[in-house]
Amino acid sequence: MLGSRRRRLTAALARVMGETMASREHSKSLVMRVLHVHRRVLPELVRHWPLDDADWPYLTIEELRRLHRAPGLAGRAAERAAACAEAVDMPMPDRLDFSADGGRRRTAPAAGSGVSPGRVTGVVVRPPADDIPGDRPAILVCASADADVAPLLGLVGGVVTGRGSAMSHIAILAREHRVPAVVGHPAAAALRPGDLVTIDGTTGEVHAEPTLTG
Fold first, then answer.
1. Residue 208 bridge partners (DSSP)
2. pTM for the complete prediction?
3. Among 139, 113, 150, 145, which residue's Cα sits nearest to residue 191?
4. Which of 17, 145, 187, 194 makes a 20 to 30 Å CA pair with 88?
């Protein structure tokens, strides 16, 4: 009797956890959609401000509101952009080792990680992906998944990112959309819009074709 109750309780808890996870991901998706709108609107606004087009993401909303009265705030954006660029270029180990001897730094893997199964061949597009082809699958390629990427998952046939993990937000969303995805692949930096590539979301392989045939 107790075993039967435990099974029913476990099943009920599993259902609640599944619903909670779905609600969490839905909420995150809504937030990312709002951020996506901000990222499309703000570049249009900054054209009227004393700020470089590439620097506005490095200011807070409050600083952007004060920018027309305090143009000197633009200098903060340039400083923060330089600091971020330096941090991104900093070499990182593929894992942390807290053993007594500190371990040895391991080099990053040559291939990426398959985080959403499936194999697809398609044309490379990059955010904001305004040129998604209609006659063949599109492969969304970006350095990392941000707010621009989530709304595009329903429109593309595959995803390749330069950074990420199996538990990253883009990996979770790709599995929900059943879109093949590879994260942490060095090819993400070299692929250009219009390239023809084949990706395998199971093995993590990304193969670029030499030419794009009609």
1. 197
2. 0.51
3. 139
4. 194
The two tokens of residue 107 are: 């080099």
Cα(108)–Cα(102) distance, rounded to whole angstroms? Answer: 18
Give the helix/strand (H/E) hosting 27: helix 2-45
CA distances from 152 to 21, 47, 174, 180, 202 (A): 21, 26, 10, 14, 21
Euclidean distance between CA atoms 140 and 136, whole angstroms: 13
Site of tokens 């994260």:
183
The 10s digit of each residue's pLDDT in 80-123 is: 888 888 887 777 655 555 555 554 444 344 578 899 999 999 99
**Domain positions in the chain:** 2-89, 113-208
